[in-house]
Every structure is written in C-alpha cells, then in structure tokens.
Amino acid sequence: MSDKAATLDFEKFHNTIAGKPRDSPKVHNGVNPSDKTKLWDVPIATEHDLDDAVKSAQEAFKRWSKTAWKERQSLLLQLREELLSHRVEMTQMILKECGKPIQFAQGEIDAAAGILQYHATAPPPGEQTIQDDADLKLSLRYVPLGVVGAICPWNFPLILSMQKIVPGLLTGNTVIVKPSPFTPYSALKFVEMAQKYLPPGVLQALNGDDRLGPMMTEHPGIEKISFTGSISTGKRVMMSAAKTLKRVTLELGGNSACIVCPDVDVNKVAPLVALGAFFNSGQLCVASKRLYVHTDIYKEFQEAILNVVKSWKVGPAGEPGMMLGPVQNEMQYNIVKGFFEDCAVNGYQFLLGGEVGDAGGFSVQPAIIDNPPHSSRIVAEEPFGPIVPMMPWTTEEELLTRVNDTRTGLGGAVYCADHERAVNIAKQIEAGTIWINSFERPLPNTFFSGHKESGIGGESGEQGLLAYMNAQAIHLYKSDVGKAPKL
C-alpha cells in the first residue's frame, strides 16, 4: 500500500468542508443490515456547516470553472487510481454498510472506477456554429452552472454518488455531496481521499439528518440539485428547489416490466430474468419488478426460474458463497414485509418464498407471486425488495396495455429471439431505458432518464454532461454595428 493510502483511516469518518475534515457534536451511526450491529460514528452537519460549504464551493468555482477540460480529466484519472488503491478497504466498507455479498461490493468499486474512466476520456461539448455569413456569426456554447448539490440514495451509495460527482466536476462545477444517512461511509471516504488532488472547496461532503436535504434544496447559493430517490421525495425536492428556480435532475422510482416472448431459449433466459428481478435483493431502481411471460412457455419458464433462484444462497453478506444479501435498512425491510403480508392476506399463490424470517439481520428470501390481479399492490406498486409477480400474456396489444398502465416509466426489458419484434415491442414501452436480451445494467456512456413520474432530466452520456451546464448563445454581427432596423 502506498504512503498516501496509509494516511486514510477506514474506521473514522468526517464531513469535508473547504478541503478539511469537520466533525460535529452530534453523530449517528449506520447499521450493518446483516446483523443489525452499529457501524462507525458519522457527524451530523449543521446549517452553519452547509453555509460554510456553499461559501467555499462558490469561491472554488471561480478558478475551477476556468481550468482546462483536459486538466480536469487528468485529475479524474488520479482519483480513479486512488480509489482502486483502496479497493480492498472500500469493498469491506460497502459489504458492511449495504449488506452486499463481497463480489457485488467489489463490483460497486469497479463500476465507480469505470465512471471515472469514461469521463476521463469523454470529449467536451463543443461550441456549435449555427450561422456564419457576411452579416452574422451565431454560435452556441455551454458553461458550468456553479455549485451542485448531490443528494444520493442508499442502494448503490458509491456508484450513484459518482454519477453525480464526476460529470459535475468535469463540466467545471463544484459539488457538495449528501450521502444517505443509511449508507454514508463510502461516499464520505471517497470525498476525503479526493482532497489530495482537488483544490479546497471543489468537492465537499456533508452527512446529515432529515433537515439537511431541505436546507440544500432551498439554499440560494446552490444552483442545481441532482437527486436520486423515491418519487414522493423527488416531488418535495422539486417544490423546494422551485423557490430559487434551481436546475434539478430527478432520478426516481420505477415499476419496470420484463417481457418474455415465446421464442426464447428458456434455460438461457431464465437466469438473466432472475438477475434482473433479484439483483441486490431487488433494491435497484430499474429492476424487473413485473414479469410478463408468454402463455405458451409460462409453466416451463416458471420451473426454470424457480430452479435458478432456489440454487442461490441468501443471507448475511459476509458469509461465503452468498448471492443475495439482506435488505439494507429496517424501514425498507418493513415495507417489503408489507408486500409479503398483503399477498398472503389476499390469498395470492407464492411460487417461491412466502415468509420473511429474522435471523438477526434484514435478510429476506426471494419470492415470486403467480399471476396476481393487475390491480394488486404487488403489480401496481414498487416493493424495492426481493418479491416479484409473474403473469402470463397472449397478445402484444393486451400486454402493452398492462405494461404501460402505470405512472412510472424508468426501465424495461424484452427477451425475444426475433430482434425486429423485440425492438418493435421495446419502442412501445413508455420508459426511458429498455434492455433487449439482457438484464438491466445501465452504462456510463448513454443517457439514463425516466419518463412520467420516474424523473426529470437524466444522467450519464453526453446528454448527462449537458445537464450540468447552461447553454449560451452568442450573436456576433459583423457589419453595420449599431444600425437600427427599419420599421
């Protein structure tokens, strides 16, 4: 391990303001969802802390916004190397704070490094010349917004923080990160390690209680809020940000449908559908939350997917061979339990699962509900846990009516051997991202956005960079300066 690596303490956590660690008289703790034990103390930021962070970010913006694109990219590569030099420690941290089995905790570190890598080679949005003749040169350029507030969720705390931090920094903004109080550790530690490379105030982090998010959305010194979380909270963020007309990006909940056509190879597709539904114990915004399988292969597919899921080991994240860890926190655990109870009370058939046990943590055995009514909670709402309904379909017309009968529109998946048919179905799904013959896995080089109530704006790819910039049109008149037009 390098000398730089040795300076980091992975059992002590601070807020970062103006390049320096800051503590607070009040602290709280995350909870290890595998065994409910308390994790490390984290300080709770005050309104004064936020004011100091915004002031520092505004001051740093004056110089950071003028640094060259290539210089910022060089720093991103250094941050990537720094992160990967702590891959072992960060993996263990995510395993504990999220309850992710080690292979998926490692995967989160690697995916976060991939976001840094992609942006370190992404071209800048170039200045466009719209018109250039004897009279007028009309051009369009993009400039950074200012101070960005990044309000991040608990299900992928490092990846989803990085999706906001990296494009925000690359486009010349300064960023203040607020991690989820359920999973504050990995984001706080990354921001701490970044201080060796970035000027003070360029990247800061504040852990807080329920008051910090509203303070950020209302703060007049913050120009943009990028929020990932629930639809209900996203609506409150938008209302609050409207007071100062902040720019907002909202990546909210979904109730994505997975469609399986009758021509698929069932044994090849079933494992992919299972991953799409249960990866991270269903705690993924674009997870397949409703499974629609053609009636011709319905029973065969049921048997295949049951065999896959039954082969998985489910339980505490730190035990060897785990495929699914626990639900991340008690609040979400109780929400998931409510879906199990609703299905049981209404007499829906459990093809798999049916009980939510408590072995000291928040582990939930995955469940599949056989053909519940379209109006049932398990179909109409998002559990955000390891329980999904499976329903047969016959015609594309009736299928798409059911698939699109929702106020959400985040993602979807289509499995079909006929690629032309698959694309035709995909184009009729009212959602921002569709995967064909793959489980849901967003990539950093393409725009990710929600339709309907699943979000405003989006992240990643070239369009994601533009979400952190203002457009500026410049009209250069070359002749007859000051000449008034004839009326």
CATH homologous superfamily identity of the largest domain: Aldehyde Dehydrogenase, Chain A, domain 1
- What would the principal axes of the Cα set say about the shape? globular
> Percent helix among the residues?
25-40%
Low-confidence blocks of residues: 1-6
Instruction: Give the terminus-to-terminus CA distance.
Output: 75 Å
- Structural class by helix and strand composition: alpha/beta
Number of helices in the DSSP assignment = 16
Q: What value does the average pLDDT take?
A: 95
Q: How many structural domains does the protein architecture include?
A: 2
- The tally of strands reads 24
Q: How much beta, percentage-wise?
A: 15-25%
CATH C-level class of the largest domain: Alpha Beta
Give the CATH architecture of the largest domain.
Answer: 3-Layer(aba) Sandwich
Major beta sheet, specifics? 7 strands, mixed
Which radius of gyration do the C-alpha atoms yield?
Answer: 24 Å
* Order of strands across the main sheet: 14-15-16-13-12-18-19
CATH fold name of the largest domain, please?
Answer: Aldehyde Dehydrogenase, Chain A, domain 1
